[in-house]
Every structure is written in structure tokens, then in C-alpha cells.
Amino acid sequence: MRRTSRSQVLCLVWMALVLLAFLGAAPPARAAVPWLSVRLVGGGMANYPVNDLSRIGFEGDTLVVVHAGGTERYGAATVVRIEFLWSPANSGVVDPRDAAALVKAVHLFQNQPNPFSPAVSPWGETSIAFDLPTAGPAELVIYGVNGRQIRSLVKDTRAAGRHTASWDGRDDAGVKASSGIYFYQLTAAGVDESRRMILLP
To answer: Which has more confidence, 59 or 40?
Structure first.
């Protein structure tokens, strides 16, 4: 029988703790209309109706949200979670065409799996799906919480439609990134969106 190394045990314990934290967390609130929710360190929260958003993305280590009421800035280290709150079951949307229009408000989807660990199979990498409304140049970049670019996954011209990219937990130089929170940002014609993910050891 093979012995389990100490690092494998620590990795499994870490994953179990993260899983327990996710299971023990209160279920996310559901909104009657689509909202972007930015949850902050210390329990603070900022909510924005998706229809009022004109831009969300990173400038260095600052999350910038441009909406109908102005511009808000959040240091990346203060952002705990970015969520899209909407449930078709309680949205009040009757016409499927209206529902399709709401879903099209999101172009960058949550990576799967999240969290993920390159050391544990089958989660050796994570997959990021994104939609492009039109053909043209597209860029998908991973950033650390300090705003430093970690990895450029996509930087080319893409057709309109659904695309996917994978990240193996390594930086542009091929060096394994440290465990922690990372943000990924999609920039393309008519799209500038970011999301958060967790890399485990």
C-alpha cells in the first residue's frame, strides 16, 4: 500500500476546510432582477443592477465599477466575492426572449472547477468559458490580488460565440503560482468583465 505524503494530507485538509466553508456559508440572496453584487472584507456589500452597468474591470489592483450613478473603486484585497444574482425561477420574466436578453448581460462565466488544485486529479486545471458578442480581438488575463498580471490565456482574434480557455495554475514563465485568490478579466469589443477564483495548493 502506498504511503500518503505529508503534503498530500495537508492539501486534502486544506480542500476539506474550503469545502466546509462553502457548505457552511449562507446561500446567496436571489434577486428579482439581475444584479452584480460585490462583497467586501468586513461584511460590506455593494449591489448594482446589471442594466445600469456600463463597465466593470481592473485598473492595476483596483476593481472599477462604472454604473448609471457614477464610478466606484474597490481595492482588490478588499473584494471577497463578485456575484451575479439572478434566478429564472423568481425573476418574474415571462417571455423567454426577455430571459435570453438578461442572460446575455454576462459574457464571462465562473471558472470550473472553483476552487481547483493543480496537484489533485482530476482538477489539474480549471476551465473558463466566455461569450463574445462580435468577432474581433479578445484578451483573457489572470491577475493576482495585487493587480500583477500572472498569465495571459487568450490574446488573439476570435469569432463571435462561446469560447473556453484553461489555466493550469502556472504563470507566463511556466512557474507554479502560489495558492490564493486570483481574478481573471475578459476584454473584447463590447466586453470588459472580471471574476474571482481560488487556487489551492
So the answer is: 40
